[in-house]
C-alpha cells in the first residue's frame, strides 16, 4: 500500500483487520498535507484515494 501511494503518503501506513466484515482498513499518515483543515489538496478528505486502489493487482 505504501509503495502504491508513495507520491501521496509521507508517513506510516498501518493495516487493521476488520473481522466482522472480513476486510482490511488502511490508515495512511501524513497523506493530506497536515490534515483536512490545512491541506491545499483538492481531495481534502482523502475519499477519492479509494478509487486509486482499484489500480492495485491483488
Task: Please specify the SSE layout and strand pairing.
Layout: E1 13-18, E2 23-28, H1 49-52
Antiparallel strand pairs: 1-2
Can you give me a brief rundown of this structure?
The chain is mainly β and 58 residues long. The protein contains 1 helix and 2 strands.
Going by helix content, strand content and strand pairing, the class is: mainly beta
Largest sheet: 2 strands, antiparallel
What proportion of the residues is helical, as a percent range?
Answer: under 10%
Order of helices and strands: EEH
Strand order of the largest sheet: 1-2
Name the shape in a single word: globular
Distance between the termini: 11 Å
Q: What does this protein look like?
A:
- There is one protein chain.
- This protein has 58 residues and is mainly beta.
- Helices cover 7% and strands 21% of the residues.
- It has one helix and two strands, in the order ββα.
- It has one helix at 49-52, and strands at 13-18, 23-28.
- 2% of the residues are buried.
